[in-house]
Amino acid sequence: MFQRNFIATASERMASIRAWLSDAAPYTAVDQKHLDAGSPEQAYWHHGYQAAIADMLAMRVTRSRRRSSGGM
Fold first, then answer.
1. DSSP for 6-34, written as a single string
2. What is the pTM of this model?
3. How far is 63 from 33, CA to CA, in rounded Å?
4. Is 29 left (phi over 0), alpha (psi -120 to 50) or beta?
5. Which of 17, 4, 1 is nearest to 55 (CA)?
6. How buried is 6 (Cβ within 10 angstroms: 0-12 exposed, 13-18 middle, 19+ buried)?
7. Nearest to 48 by CA among 13, 23, 22
8. pLDDT band, very low/low/confident/very high, at 12 (cuts 50, 70, 90)
9. Distance from chain centroid for Cα 28
10. Residue 15: is its pLDDT beyond 90?
11. CA distance 29 to 33
């Protein structure tokens, strides 16, 4: 059950971000400036990626704590 909820939540977040990017910055799908070594875009891409990983880990910890305390 936890894994299904985690996957559903992560999928919803991804879809939301994709929709936002499609509206706000559609050029990012083709420009790929984050691949240019040493570019500000590369730094921001890495920052965003580590933030996403931190978000997923926090989501897991929060749900694990809820389960161990008798919550969902």
1. HHHHHHHHHHHHHHHHHHH-TTHHHH-GG
2. 0.70
3. 36
4. alpha
5. 17
6. middle
7. 13
8. very high
9. 16
10. yes
11. 10
**What are the tokens at 66?**
């809820």
Quote the CA–CA distance of 8 and 31 in Å, as a whole number: 29
Q: What is the pLDDT of residue 4?
A: 82
The first and second tokens of residue 62, run together, are 């929060």
44 contact partners, CB below 8 Å, separation of at least 6: 34
Render pLDDT for 20-55 as a digit per residue (tens, 0 to 9): 999 999 999 999 999 999 999 999 999 999 999 999
Please compute, for residue 38, the number of CA atoms within 13 A of its CA located in the half-sphere on the CB side.
Answer: 0
pLDDT band for position 60 (cuts 50, 70, 90): confident
